[in-house]
Design brief:
The chain is α/β, with parallel strands linked by helices and about 525 residues long. It contains 19 helices and twelve strands. The relative contact order is 0.17.
């Protein structure tokens, strides 16, 4: 096929009526076609996406390109920075002759620029701390997080219900543990009377799973002040979308905490964002780097929850982009929901690798222009196979793309540069203050201390004496001749009525037969 014919087909597939962003230029026979741009329509960003490829092929830079271009169009984003190399998006690129050469081939000039950045953290990294209360998770989501069975989930539901009925705020894990302890020990009789029996064996399993969660520092995530997801959709004074960078470089060995955060964040966004449908551009984009960390450690219940949210959250104007080495890292049910696919090079060192590449190639639209299996192993750094959705939701042609360079710095910021960004933050002081208000833990401890006090014991004795006196009076009344006669009369009439009904039914049944 000639270049002109190819060029016409590609241009027809990547020309859109609404706003779009440019990813790069189309390639044919490994040659960049000047001014043949590969675009993504903003109206389909909420259809989610995948950025995949072997280590060192440019996945992170593609993420950076997308985030900064979306920011320039007024679309905020949240970036999971696991490797610590995305902070450079906050400052303009220093430029380089190779960057100019790349853009000259594509056919549009390189313009260095930065994006407004907010740093967030779940740990000791600098930034505004993210937290959520146990109550905000709710019993269903929290049970799925712990991978509890039906009986154990029922106990969690009872604990949440008891705390809700008795004004016991569940803010952090110590609140939850204290409440579980109370309903199975000191408050056992009261709880079993109103809510049903609780198995101690099941409680032991629940406590062990909570301790496992705590071992990954989850106790630092649960608490106040809760993060308001509306702070993710802010803009700067120039109308650019805020790029919130969650620095999680120290969480690779704590996948449970990472998946916990992700699930809660997605659930909170879904619950609080209004329905927006398919508007001209999305409200928020989420980029999850090293996405395999979520799916590898997530239990089946969590996976089901993630799949459901991914399917539903696009109606809220939110796009989710998974960044990982191989598309097979993503469950099929999630992968099938991803409209945009940017596939960087894969390496075939073994027979197993070659089989995996053939499987990956089947995820993309059929094309007469490329031998996809072969090309996947030959893509250079900064090149990718791209297919998305057009404005009608139809997959665009698969195209070998020569990606543009990020407009921002392709390197990490210095500590001094990070400090300057933190100093400009308008939310960090609010979220980083320590809050430990009275909650279930303190209230229950106070109740138990009061129960053990001499004054309380004396009050109990008085109440018991009064109760015995009332009981004695009642027994005297019930033992009188008149009372016994009334009792016998009532019992007789009740029995007669009951047997009378049964007798009538029996008589009718006999007559029928």
């Amino acid at each position: 096929m000639s270049k002109d014919t190819f060029k016409k087909e590609i241009l027809d597939g990547y020309e859109f009526e609404g706003e779009s962003i440019i990813l790069g230029g189309a390639m044919h026979d490994k040659e960049v076609l000047h001014e043949t741009f590969v675009r993504l329509p903003l109206s389909t960003i909420n259809r989610h996406g995948l950025i995949a490829g072997a280590t060192g092929t440019g996945k992170t830079k593609t993420l950076q390109i997308l985030a900064e271009q979306l920011s320039d169009k007024g679309i905020p984003s949240l970036l999971m920075d696991i490797k610590g190399d995305l902070s450079g998006i906050a400052v303009p690129s220093d430029g380089h002759p190779k960057i100019d050469e790349r853009h000259e081939k594509i056919g549009f000039p390189f313009i260095a620029d930065d994006s407004p950045v907010e740093f967030l953290t779940l740990s000791d990294e600098p930034g505004a701390r993210l937290r959520a209360t146990v109550a905000e998770f709710g019993p269903v989501l929290f049970s799925k997080l712990l991978d509890l069975n039906e009986t154990q989930s029922g106990i969690i539901a009872v604990v949440f219900k008891y705390c809700d009925d008795h004004d016991l705020p569940l803010l952090d894990l110590k609140d939850l543990k204290k409440s579980i302890q109370f309903v199975t020990e000191e408050g056992k009789e009261e709880v079993e009377k109103d809510y049903g029996r609780i198995s101690k064996a099941s409680v032991g399993t629940i406590m062990r799973k909570i301790l496992e969660l705590e071992s990954q520092d989850a106790d630092r995530f649960f608490g106040e002040k809760s993060f308001d997801v509306q702070d993710l959709v802010r803009h700067d004074e120039n109308g650019k979308g805020m790029v919130s960078i969650l620095r999680v470089t120290d969480l690779q060995d704590k996948p449970k905490l990472f998946s916990t955060f992700m699930l809660q964040m997605l659930a909170e966004i879904y619950a609080s964002f209004p329905e927006s449908g398919d508007k001209g551009k999305p409200k928020l984009a989420l980029f999850i780097d090293e996405a395999h960390l979520i799916f590898e450690e997530a239990n089946d219940a969590l996976l089901d929850q993630i799949e459901v949210i991914v399917k539903l959250i696009r109606s809220k104007g939110v796009g989710i982009f998974f960044v990982t080495q191989n598309p097979t890292d993503i469950p099929d049910d999630v992968l099938s929901q991803l409209g945009l696919k940017v596939q960087h090079a894969l390496r075939a060192f073994t027979a197993k690798d070659r089989k995996a590449i053939k499987l990956v190639a089947e995820n993309y639209p059929l094309t007469d222009h490329y031998d996809v299996d072969q090309l996947l192993t030959e893509l250079g750094i900064g090149e990718a196979l791209v297919t998305g959705l057009n404005e009608k939701g139809i997959p665009t042609p698969l195209v070998h793309t020569y990606l543009r360079a990020p407009q921002s710095r392709m390197d990490v910021l210095s500590d001094r540069e990070i400090d300057r960004i933190l100093d400009r933050s308008v939310i960090i002081d609010d979220y980083n203050q320590e809050i430990d208000r009275e909650s279930a833990y303190e209230i229950l401890n106070e109740r138990l201390e009061r129960a053990a006090s001499p004054e309380h014991n004396e009050e109990i004795k008085v109440q018991r004496g009064r109760a015995r006196k009332e009981k004695s009076t009642l027994e005297q009344v019930m033992s009188s001749t008149t009372t016994r006669q009334i009792g016998r009369t009532v019992a007789r009439e009740l029995t007669r009525g009951l047997l009378g009904v049964l007798g009538v039914r029996t008589t009718r049944r006999r007559r029928r037969y």
